[in-house]
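Feature request disguised as a bug report, sorry. It would help if multi-protein outputs had a clear separator. Right now it looks like this:
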Amino acid sequence: MTNTYLSDLGLLIYALLIVAVALQVMLKRRPVGVTLTWLLLIFALPLVGIICYQLFGERYLGRLRAKRARLMETKYKQSVHLFNRSPHVVKQSCSDVAEPLNQLTRRLLGLPILGGNQLTNFEDSLETLTQLTKDIQQAKSSIYMEFYIVQQGGLLDPLLEALAEAAQRKVSVYLLVDSVGSSEFLKSSASSQLLNAGVNVVEALHANPVRMLLQRIDLRLHRKIAAIDQQIAYTGSMNLVDPRFFNQQRGVGQWIDLMLRVEGPAALNLQAVVAYDIEMETGEALIEQLDLLSTTASVGQQRMQIMPSGPGIFGDHIIQLLLTSLYLAKKQIVLTSPYFVPDESLQMALVTAASRGVEVNLILPARNDSFLVRYASHSFYQQLLNAGVNIYKFNGGLLHTKSLLIDQQVALVGTVNLDMRSLWLNFEVTSIIDDKSYAEDLDRIMQHYLQQSTRINALAWRKRPIYRRLLENIIHIFSPLL
């Protein structure tokens, strides 16, 4: 009798727990697809669903970080005010395509367009590492860097040595790295050697079993920024690795990345983003050490604006920027992303663009390093192909570049993948570049990618095996959570 009573009580508690978590899901105003996917998982596999939701379902940063974010909001508003007093602020965009994007970013974040820059694309990661090392060696006052993955080996070793040497000559050096992405580096002797040399190696979003109870473990620092002396900065898709020595065991080839070197006033904006992220982790007020009213001389004529995104101060506005860009296109869209699992709004924007006669070229890697993402991505292809979207599979390695080129006039280059993690969870940064010559150079790089790609034939794709389609559609159900 007692056993029956305890069994019934346990079932009642279990049922109430399922209902409570389901109500928790429904009380959050998320996209319908995300909500329904979580509910399906919770009711189909209750124990797994409840555990997964508590670990990954809530965007909870942790009490200390949330408190710092509130305190830093005032600082952010003050710094934006100073940025807008710069003599390099540009009030009007060059092109009609860029103006709505610039207005959107100004209204959402207050960040201005800054002119007077020289922008250079680096499509070869080895050249990027070589030039970045040279810039580090010439640093005089400050080096602020943040990367998702840092892994020693190859050309990264002399770069790390240059960081140590810079710290020893009294340059203020900070290296902020993600706890999960750079877990091996943080435990390595290279990290210890940097610390001993005076480099401030900071672990971002520290992940351990105890913290899993307090905050999400999949909120990641995904930005890639290196900023030097408030005058030079790098940003783009490349992690701090030598691709010849990185993830070769996955069998997808070397990672192909694009990095943007910024010389001029816009470099200060990127350095300020790193300063904010470091303060979020350490409480150290680095933003006060930057000269936000810097009168750095113009070194070129190119214009650039940035949009940081992610939980906290900067917000998850990147989806608005992407949608606005796609709907503004009149002639052509060229988009690259290593992970393509769009939400319904982005999928419809691409379909709509193709349906109204815009040439839409989507360049994706033929193979990537995620089984689930690969098949979830495939589940979106048929609708796109039916609308006339050109989908190209890049065969020259894992194409890791994240870029969007609109009408060969305006470019978006940054760290954002077309998946839910980048759009809603990760801390990312995107550069908005309103310059015809830069757009032409980015188009040159896109053409080089296309030469190494194979276009998917819509008819052949429709005839793929039934088991493939079934697997893709099953994984598609969970795509809002990937």
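(second protein starts here, but nothing in the output says so)
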Amino acid sequence: MGKVTGFLEIDRQVHKYQPAADRIRHFREFTLPMSDSEVEKQAARCMDCGIPFCHGPNGCPVHNQIPDWNDLIYAGDWDAAIRNLHSTNNFPEWTGRICPAPCEEACTLNLEDIPVAIKTIEQAIADKAYETGYVRPYPAEKQTGRKVAVVGSGPAGMAAAQQLGRAGHEVHVYERESRPGGLMRYGIPDFKIEKHYIDRRVEQMQGEGVTFHCGVNVGVDKPVDELLAEYDAVLYCGGSEKPRPAGIPGVDLHGVHDAMPYLVQQNRRVANEDIQSVAWPSEPIVAGGKHVVVVGGGDTASDCVGTAFRQGAVRVTQLDIRPQPPEKEDKLTVWPYWATKMRTSSSQAEGAQREFQVATLEFVGEDGELTAVKCCEVDEKRKPVEGTEFFIRADLAFIAIGFAGVPEGGFAGNLGDRLEMAQDARRSHNVVANEVDYRTSVDKLFAAGDVRRGQSLVVWAIREGRQAARSIDEFLMGTTLLPR
């Protein structure tokens, strides 16, 4: 805990943002860091709550020891706080930027709507780790002689590769795109996380002996069976990347796109790469001077909103089929779980028009070009309400309603019927592997991250990658010292 009476004496403060009028002019991060002394004051607010729900099953998936490093920061021991944070989280500079912070929802002080600023403190600790030189290679003292292949270099694959490399295994990471990072690099906009934070970790891991093979699409360029023959174990962390079909008439009109090709293109532009992606090929998509409609209410939809504003969109409208949530939740009913309440992302706050409890009936066009989106209000069962139809002008529309699991062909298709696949509650087509050992139905093949659990948060991917690494280490060596 921090200061005994800190939560009574110190108001909650989080880092501020650049004004919207300034930040939409660039694709860089726009948070304004707090000083060390301000961060230490916020850490002092961590109270002696008895049961730290923040790092329980409802709070932090990687079980960050939040009260411990809050107390260390309050005491001014940043070095110990850095070591503590990295003991549970390989990439806290990622989660400190893009995690929605379920830990803060589970904080006891959230009963009064003033949770400890955990996310802000975590980002400050992670950034301090770079300043102090803590983020450097930590190679294993001795090698085991075992070889492991990791397919996919998103958060799950990167976390697993780092853990396995530090355990002394020879680790090779295969990535079909030109650079490592998965959708951390190509899906999440730079204004949320700049990609040099990924590059630094890749450099660190290379110093620890991890080898990256980019531009290799396993299952297409390299058969999976060949990989299984070459390595003692293979971990599949390919992600959940198949867009969920919208089933909306007019989806084939020019100007209607799935969200991911749009986001990937812009990330590649910012990185001075060719905008054509292996997984997301598309014609150039730019929102400048256009009326944009985004279908969907989640993080991907919000990222489309922020990207469109930065490209110079005239107007951006976001459609959400869910009813508008309440401004404040019933704490005694919901806490410490994630609450359904009105939330406004930084991108939405830049000027988006939000429509709730609205269904997208049709994309309307002329001569094959999108001109409008036909909508209507829906009832509590999401059924259209007759007589409520209306049209929204649109030159460009993005569908951001989630992902449906592993695409046909590729890695999974290469294994045919040997790889057991199943549908989850969201009808996503995922690889079958449990959370105990992460083994699949194919010998020596493990799976972790979104490819196993379906689309989820970066913090869950890191957790699964770490746990899968422990299982693989135990599989190869008979025992393991890696944490779970």
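Even a blank line would do. Unrelated, but nice: DSSP finds 18 helices and 17 strands in the chain.
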